[in-house]
């Protein structure tokens, strides 16, 4: 909720323009082919997979998929996928305005993979965007926009669980949300500048390194899988 509020604030002008155009397309004042109106529809369509799959597999997501060996595998696996996607997409030229309905659905399915712990939601979506031919900035921007309904929806759905025990008390949750907003806003601003001149290799090494650390901690008994 904190990081997505940061997305709302950072992209407020883009989001407002998309909302106005989307509403206009409903009333007939704006053509549905308008890029901003289409983006509104594409964000909605792209959000459907994670909502449906999240509700269908909620129990598994909260229980069996929390096994840390699965997290290790996903950390390393998505890191490798991101590496391959980044190499393939190094010379991609497709812009966000060229996003098609098919691509919107594919990216929505990629985002849904993040229901598995250890899969980076943005990493999976960006990788899919690069495989589809979009440039780094376009893939990253759409990943941020696509996250808004999914993350706010899941956050609101889980509000009922706050306060259930000491580890999920309201005080720590509010503090963590505020900190997530501050850090999230700074990271968004930095990331969009960074990818304009750099690739995603640093994030690949981060994921592979973290996977190795968690695996060692499990094997040495420091963490229980």
**Rg for CA atoms:** 18 Å
Distance between the termini: 28 Å
Strand content: under 5%
- The best one-word shape is globular
Order of helices and strands: HHHHHHHHHH
Structure description:
There is one protein chain. This protein has 225 residues and is mostly helical. It is 72% helix and 0% strand. The chain contains 10 helices and no strands. Helix 5 (68-88) packs antiparallel against helix 10 and helix 6 packs antiparallel against helix 7. The chain is globular and about 60 Å long. The two termini are 28 Å apart.
What is the gist of this entry?
This protein has helices at 2-10, 12-27, 35-56, 58-62, 68-88, 101-112, 121-131, 136-158, 170-194, 201-219.
Give descriptors for this structure.
225 residues, mainly alpha, 72% helix
List the helices and strands and how they pair.
Elements: H1 2-10, H2 12-27, H3 35-56, H4 58-62, H5 68-88, H6 101-112, H7 121-131, H8 136-158, H9 170-194, H10 201-219
Helix pairs in contact: 1-8, 1-9, 2-3, 3-6, 3-8, 5-7, 5-10, 6-7, 7-8
